[in-house]
Design goal:
This protein has seven helices and 17 strands. It is α+β, with helices and mostly antiparallel strands. A hairpin with a 2-residue loop joins strand 5 and strand 6. The two termini are about 40 Å apart. Bound molecules: uracil (URA).
């Protein structure tokens, strides 16, 4: 049996209108449940079994949505903002309760998972889960083997503890260096602060992966696609339990 929810909530969740608007539609007789007009917004709907139609069009229920979004620079990792475009301004989804899983700075590009699955978000963001995030960056200055060692050992970014071991790979070293960095924490401005700790500035930052999820080469900044069933399953399974990690 599917979940049971009120008819007005069902329609509002599916983007038919606000709660007040859908109540008015129901009262006007625009909604049928199993081919019968109902005027009761409070009617309980079985999301798996009942057939709900609005103005004669079936409205199927979508419980959870998962999108892989290529965040462009200039977009904020929030659901509302007065001055900038938010991630939700780019996504045409059914559910109105979507949010980004974690944050990227306004000038950072790259992979952002957008969903309404709070339990999965919690798993991915929990500091205890150590989910790996890989970034490509351009650095103002020469990145050296010493920086690689420092990041492996942990650097002081002004927090109580040093950062956890991070994997730094130098792609090219010069006046402007190109690197890949993998971290398993998510502190505010973490990558930028780690480079500041070794006296360098990040001039471009792009997230390539988060856990098992990788940025899709077919996507351009500002584009998105739904996750596949396999990607959703892999993400939910990949976060090792705390006890397992402690034994590593
Ligand atoms: N580290 C940063 O400094 N900024 C980001 O947006 C993500 C990681």
């Amino acid at each position: 049996m599917g979940a049971k929810i009120r008819l007005d909530k069902y329609l509002a969740n599916m983007g038919i209108g606000t709660r007040t608007e859908v109540k008015a539609y129901i009262r006007k007789g625009k909604v049928t449940v199993n081919d019968t007009v109902t005027k009761s917004p409070e009617l309980k709907i079985d999301t798996d079994k009942d057939q709900v139609c609005f103005e004669h069009q079936p409205v199927g229920y979508v419980r959870q949505e998962y999108y892989l979004f290529y965040k462009p620079a200039g977009c904020v990792s929030a659901t509302e903002d007065k001055t900038h475009r938010t991630v939700l301004d780019y996504i045409d989804a059914k559910r109105k309760d979507l949010f980004p899983v974690g944050r990227l700075d306004i000038d950072t590009e790259g992979l952002l998972l957008i969903t309404n699955d709070g339990a999965l978000a919690h798993q991915l963001l929990s500091p205890k889960k150590h989910v790996k995030k890989t970034y490509y960056a351009r650095i103002d200055g020469l990145v050296t083997a010493e920086d690689v060692r420092a990041f492996e050992e942990g650097v002081d970014i002004g927090e109580e503890k040093l950062t956890m071991p991070a994997d730094l790979e130098i792609l090219s070293a010069g006046e402007i260096s190109e690197i890949l960095i993998t971290i398993c924490e998510g502190k505010y401005h973490q990558v930028k602060r780690m480079f500041e700790a070794v006296g360098k500035n990040v001039i471009y930052l792009k997230r390539l992966s988060m856990g098992t999820l990788t940025l899709d080469a077919a996507l351009q900044p500002g584009e998105y696609r739904s996750l596949t069933k396999q990607e959703i399953a892999a993400l939910s399974q990949q976060t090792p339990k705390e006890e397992e990690r402690e034994q590593e």
